[in-house]
Task: structure prediction
Amino acid sequence: MEKPNFLSEKYPDLPGSKPVERAVRKAKHDPERKFAPHSRDERVQAYLNRLDGIVKDERGWELLKNKITKEFVIDIDDEETLTKIAHGLYESEKRIAIEQGRGHEVEQITRDKDLIEKYKDLVKEKRDIQERTLVSWLDYLQENDAQYPTWFRYFTVRNLEKMGTLDKEKGEYSKRTGYTVAPFPELNSEALGFVYRMLTTGIGHQEFAGEDEKGKREELAKLIAKKDFIKLYTFAQIETAGNLNRESLQGEWVKYEQGGDYHTLENALRGKGTGWCTAEGSAYSHLQGGDFYVYYTRGTSGTYSEPRVAIRMEGDRVSEVRGVNHRQELEPALIEVAQEKYHSFPGGDKFDKKSEDMKHVTELVKKQEKGEPFTKADLTFLYELDTPIEGFGYDKDPRIEEIKSKRNRQEDIQTLCNCSPEYIANDFININESTQVYYEDTGSKITFFDFREERNQKKLPQLIELAKNIKESGSPARPDMLFGGGIVTIEISEEKLKDTKTALQSYKEADNNSPHYIWDEWINAPYTKPKLPLEAIILSYNKDPNTRESSDKIVADMNKLNLRPATLEEMIALGITKPEFNKRSGTYLVGLTKYSLGGSSHVPILSWRGDKRGLDGGRWGSGWDGWGRFVCVRK
Result:
C-alpha cells in the first residue's frame, strides 16, 4: 500500500484525531506488527489500514456508510436547520417572482401561511436526493473496480463533503455547507481516474504539450502541487467531456492483450466521454489482470472509433462488463452484442441474469408506453420481491424508478397480494382475525407476510395479542416478520445445552458450511440450562439506521409488553436452531441480558462478520442503531 505522506500535511489535525488514536491503539495490540505507529505519517497509515478492514467487512461498511451519510447530508431532524432551509427556499421563490415581474404571485406566496410547511417537505425530498447521490459515490469507492488505494478513497470522500454545485461558466464548485440543498456532484469515473493519475504519476510528457495548451499545463501543475482535489476533478470533468456518436450499432471488437501497452487502450478511450475509469489511470492495472475487450461502432468518419461496450478479464475469466449509459449501464440495443461476446469466455454466464433483467426492464417500458397491464409476475420483478434487479452499471437502472413513478402503488400491492384491501394490513398494530396479508412498504422495498399459508396462520393469534399489547402500551416496537414471522419456536435436544462448553460446541456445529467466531469471554459467563421448547420474539425498535436507542430504554419497553430479554443460553439455542438468522445481511440479533465480562457489562449478539457466524459480545451501554433486532421471551 502506498504511503500518502501528504495527508498529514494537508490535514494537520488528522494524526491526532480520535479516529486515528483508536486505530493506533488497535495497531499497538496487533501481534503481527513489529513496531507501533509513531510518526505522524505512520499514525495516519494505521488509520487507513483500519478503514480498509472496515470497508471489507459487510456490516462494518454499512455502519461507516450510514455515519458518513448522516454527517454529510442536511439534518432534517434538527427543526432549526429544517426551518432555516425552508425559509431560504421560500425567500428565494419570492425573489425570483419579483425579478421576473410576477407581482401577483409574490402576494399569493406572502399570504400562503402553509407554504413554509410545504417547503419543509421539499427540503426532505432534497435530503433524500442528496443521500442517493452521496451513496452512489460511496458504493463505487467501496466496490473499487478501479483498484484505488485506501488513501485516495479517503481523500475523495473528505473532499466530497465540501463540494456544492458546479458553475460551468466559472469552472468551479460552490462551497457545501450544512444548509446546502443541492445534490452531491455527478460521479464521473473517468474524471476521478484522471485525478488519481495526476496525484500519483503527474502530467505525461506529451500531455497538453502544444503551445496553445501551455496555460492548461501550468494550471494543472499548480493544482497537483497543492493536492487540490476539487479543482483537479473540475478540470478533469471538462477535459473528459466527450460526445459519443451513437447513431450506429454496427461495430467490431478490439482485444487489448494482458500485459500489453496500456497507453494504446487509454488513448483509444480518452476524451470519448465513456465515463470508464480505464480511460484515466486504470488501464495499466486492468491489463495487468487480464485481457480487455472494447466494442467500437462507426463514427462520423466511417471508422470504428466509438467505444460502446467494455469487457474486462481477470486471468481467463470475465470480471466486468460495462456500457456507456447512465453510470456505465449497457445500452439496451447492445445487450445481445455484449452477451454473445462474454459467452465465449469462462465465467461469462454469471452476467446472464443482468442481461435478462435489463431485457425485462425494456419490455416493461414498452408495455407502459402502450398502456398494457402488468402481470403479477411483472410486478414481482419490478418491486424486486424475489430477487434484486441487476444491471451492468454502478447504479440501479433509472428506468426502474421511472416505471414505478407512473404506477398506482396501492393497486399494484393488491394485485401482488391477490386479495381485497379490507383483508390487507400495512401497520402491524392493525392486524386482526380477518387479516390475510400484512405488508411493510419502506418506499424502496415491499415485504409481505401471507397469513393464508398454514404455517403463518398458526402464528396469527399470537401476533394479534402482541399487536394489542404494543398498541395499548404505545410501544415503538414492531416484530421483524422476516425472522420467521417475528415469533420463532426453539426446540432442540437439551443434551446439546447441558453446560456452557457443550452449548458453545453445539453452536459451532450448527452450520458446518460457515466459519464461526465466538467471543472468548462467553466461556466464563454464568449459565443455566434453558427450558425448552421456547418461543423467541424478535423485535425491531428503530427502522432508521441513523438513530440510536439505549439499552435501558429498550429493556424498559420490553417490561411494558410483559417480555424480558433473552439470556446467553437462549441466544445460543436460537443460533443453533436458526443458524441462517446469523446471515441476515444488514441486521444483528441482540439479547439484552447484562453480563459482567471483559472488564465491563456485555450482552450476547448473533452477527455475521463478513463470512463468519458470530456469537459476539456488545457493550451494555451502547446506543443500538437501526440494524439491531432484539430477542426476548415472555415473562
